[in-house]
Amino acid sequence: MPVIVNGVELNDADLEQELPQHQQADNHMRAAVTALVLRRVLLDEAGRQGLDAADEEGAIGELLAREATAPEADEAACRRHYQMHPERFMVGELVEADHILFQVTPGVNLDMLRGHATMVLEALLADPSRFAEVAREQSNCPSAAVGGSLGQLGRGDTVPEFERALFALPAGGLLPQLLQTRHGLHILRVTRRIEGRLLPYEHVAGQIAAALTAMSRDTAWRQYIKLLVGRARIEGIDLDDGEPERVYSAGPA
Fold first, then answer.
1. Domain total for the chain?
2. What tens digit of pLDDT does each residue of 36-68 get?
3. Can you give the C-alpha Rg of the chain in angstroms?
4. Which of 121, 99, 96 is nearest to 191 (CA)?
5. CA distance 203 to 44
6. Helix spans in 87-239 (H)
7. Nearest Cα residue to 243 out of 73, 35, 64
8. Tell me, what CATH number does 194's domain have?
9. Verdict on whether the full-model pTM lies above 0.85
C-alpha cells in the first residue's frame, strides 16, 4: 500500500536512499518510511511558509530555527546539572572488576538460566574466595580464562547498565543480585577502586551549556514535528504517539 503525505506519494528511490540510516532499528523499513513521512511534512510546511524547498536541508533548518526555538542554558541550570551529575565530570576514576557471564543465546530457557545463575551467586556470597575458580568453570565470557578478570575499567568502557552497577560497588564488593544486560546475566565484583578527580566547574561550563542547549533544542523540535504530523494528511501508515520522536529525535544537524 503506498504511503501518501498531503497528497504526495513517497517513492521507492527515496526509500532506498533512506534505509541505510536505520539499520539498527527493530523495524528498519518502518523507521525509514516514518523518517520520509516526517521529512515530507516538514518540507510541506516550509513551502507553505515561503521557504526555498529546492534546498531541502536549508529549508528544514530555517523552519525549525523559526518555529521551534529553544532557550540557551543559563548559568543556574548549568551549575545545577554539574552538582547533580558529578560523576560525568570525573577524570582518572577506575575500577578493577571481575564478572561471570551467563550468556542469553537464542533458544535458551531464561528462567532455567536465571535459576542456575542465582544458585551460583548464592554459593559465591557464602564463599567469595572461589570466584576465580567458578568463573573459569561457568562464565561464557573470554575473561573466564583469567578467572573472570576484566582488568581496569573507566566510565564509558561498558554498557550503561553494567557501568552503573560497577561504579556503585565498593572495593571488595560482590553485587548481591544478578545483573542483567543486553549480553546476559552477570555476577559482578569490584576488587579495587582508583578514585578520580572532579574537574572544576569552570573547565566544563561550556560543555554543559552546549549539551543542555542541544537537549532543549531537540525537545522543541520533537514537539513541533509532532504538531505538524497531527495536522498532516497521512495515508498508508499509522504513526503511534511516540514514533515521530523516536525516529526523528536528532532532527537535521
1. 2
2. 999 999 999 999 999 987 788 899 999 999 999
3. 25
4. 96
5. 43
6. 110-126, 131-138, 160-168, 201-231
7. 35
8. 3.10.50.40
9. no
